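Open question from group meeting: does this chain pack into something compact, or does most of it stay loose? Before anyone orders reagents, we agreed to write out a predicted structure and look at it together. Recording both the input and the output here so the notebook holds the full record.
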Amino acid sequence: MDNHRSRSRESLGKLDVRYLAAGALAGAAVGVWANRKTRHFKQTGEMPKLINWAQVRTIATGMNRGDGLGAAERARLAAEYRGLVERCLGPIAEYTGSRLSRPFDAVLAFDRAEWVDANIAGFEQLFGPLEGLNPLSDQQPRVANVLWGNVNQTVLSGEVGLLLGYLARRVLGQYDLALLGKEPLTEGKLYFVEPNIRQVQRTLRLPLDDFRMWLALHETTHVFEFEAHPWLRDHLNGILEQYFEFLSQDVTQLKEGGLTGLRMFWERARERGNLRGGNWIELVMTNEQRELFSQMQATMAIVEGYSNHVMNAIGRQILPGFEQITRQFEKRQREKSIAEQIFIRLTGLDLKLEQYRMGEAFIDQVVAQRGHAFAHQVWDGPEKMPSLDEVKNPERWVARMDALTVAAV
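Structure tokens returned:
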């Protein structure tokens, strides 16, 4: 395997943590039944929340105690990373041909707990539309309608807390763009998680300045992807909004159908159980949900794969130790424990990692065959973004682009 292919396995650019959570909601909708919430509802009249965010934070930060940053150190590090990002802007603009409409300096240095807090805020915003789907919201609860009860809330909160706690120990850098927000934000933020960066740098005995620059190249490419192409955020928001609409229909069926509604999920999983290459998350989706999930996967595969491609192309030119850093980093990826491999599989992270690998392979193959300018068409608009099938088969996307060119003449 090419020694650059699986770089995203170390949480370079965990831009799509929330997409993973959105996909998992289809599986979570099957949930855990509990009748004790019925008593609580009758006694208090309070509607249970889908997720207890205080519990999520307690779990995630409890897994990441220590290694905090003081205010002075945080400010110093943020200034250093802003300098690295500034150094990356020119080379990336020259290679990609993209331009930012305004200066970018929203760069922050985080410890692990601060990264958790920042992502909880984003998660809560993302999950907001689902709170209105609570099946207890318009009727007295029955056993079949307490999917959002205490036990289920505890399970879902625990799952999200464990996922964030795990990622908080792995994420090195993240470009964070608000999605499904009320305000039309167009500028994201770059986070660099210093304790994780230092840990990897010490473990692999890498030059700290070069390693930081290596990371900055990847994350700064995300800035260009989203802020030089504003349609991309709207495109991803549209996919998520449609996905939640379908999820709303599922909840309505559960609310109105009782056991029959729950049996719906079981039938989906049974019918799709023999699908090859699928993930458990996808088993309980409708065909429409699976199509939207595939669109999310394909888009995020290109987002991450293109960033790796740009990092490789530029890094080899400006970092003398680029190849050494990459080799050492890849070696570390192959040394995951059995427990960690199981966790990755159960949370669906393996699904995302595979898409990233394919995304980088897609960009590399198209660039090798037709040049970078041809591959850069992926950023022209949603109609030119590859489907998941085209990500797996780049020659089909190339043929479609050629056909579009001929048709336009």
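Observations to bring back to the group:
Residues 399 and 405 are 10 Å apart (CA to CA).
The longest strand covers residues 189-193.
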